[in-house]
Amino acid sequence: MTEQATTPSTTLDRTPDPEFLWALQSYVMESGRLLVVEVDRDGRIIDSNLTFRSRFAGFASVRGEPLSRFLSSGSGELLDIEPGLPRRTPVARVFQTPLGGETYLFHAYPSGRGIVLIGELANVAESDIVERMGNLAMEMSRLVRDLRNTNRELVLANETNQALARTDPLTSLANRRYFMDRLENGIARARIGGAPLSLIMVDLDHFKQVNDRFGHAGGDLVLVAFAGLLESQVRGVDLAARLGGEEFAVVMAEADLRVAGDVADRLRMRLADLRPLDASYRVTASFGVAERRPEEDADALLGRADDLLYLAKRSGRNQVVLEPAAAVSDRP
């Protein structure tokens, strides 16, 4: 009867971290010198490298075969292949060929599917084998460290790319696309919860004159300065965005028309102190403020706020225009 490997149920957790498993699979499986074989809990071979197959099976597949067909403990008892990894320190296992003659030293590591055994023929000085295994452990540790660093860099790069995809490159405010996504999501939540939601549209007054007088670099300074003021005056739960050119917007969740109007008026007054270019240039802006009506979608709300903004423009600029209070009083 074929011997099977023992798998005591009282051993340590054999689940390796992903980077450690990657080092096992990608580094040692490609080794041309080391014998590498992965077995399941019943001691049957799941995978092996070319070196193992060439030595024990003449390059033939050994998948599904019991490991005890090729190796034994040398004293008749069942194979002990438990990894026994306190603090990931591998335990050495000494095996022999079933008919004796050759002795092998293996280190046992847990894998995602079972146990990976990594070893060499032990016909050289034991100290040499220990040194080789130590070098292998150091190399795997380096691979794990490098992989973790790479994964961390990839995560950071992905987060950076996501931030860039939703950010206006000049002002670092949200761009139009991300703003529209947030506005639609905010309206969906407001419909479910019944909370108010308001929108402020802003357009800097006479901005073409800024570019004509100070150049586009001067215009950029004004946009950046206004963006900084805008962020400083809105709540953390609000989203300020540059929609394009000199046009900005703020979506305010759980804020009614009165709250949004107060924010817009405070912004207009604080603009009087903004001097991004020189003392002779004063920045002003026009504001349109609207609160979401029942069943209104993002485009409709944006259109109404935009109409109110241009009403402020036509009425002399540098002012805040709110929708009529009667329109808001109809909300549930």
From TrEMBL:
<protein>
    <recommendedName>
        <fullName>diguanylate cyclase</fullName>
        <ecNumber>2.7.7.65</ecNumber>
    </recommendedName>
</protein>
<feature type="coiled-coil region">
    <location>
        <begin position="140"/>
        <end position="167"/>
    </location>
</feature>
<keyword id="KW-0175">Coiled coil</keyword>
<dbReference type="InterPro" id="IPR029787">
    <property type="entry name" value="Nucleotide_cyclase"/>
</dbReference>
<feature type="domain" description="GGDEF">
    <location>
        <begin position="195"/>
        <end position="325"/>
    </location>
</feature>
<dbReference type="InterPro" id="IPR000160">
    <property type="entry name" value="GGDEF_dom"/>
</dbReference>
<dbReference type="Pfam" id="PF00990">
    <property type="entry name" value="GGDEF"/>
</dbReference>
<dbReference type="InterPro" id="IPR050469">
    <property type="entry name" value="Diguanylate_Cyclase"/>
</dbReference>
<dbReference type="GO" id="GO:0052621">
    <property type="term" value="F:diguanylate cyclase activity"/>
</dbReference>
<dbReference type="InterPro" id="IPR043128">
    <property type="entry name" value="Rev_trsase/Diguanyl_cyclase"/>
</dbReference>
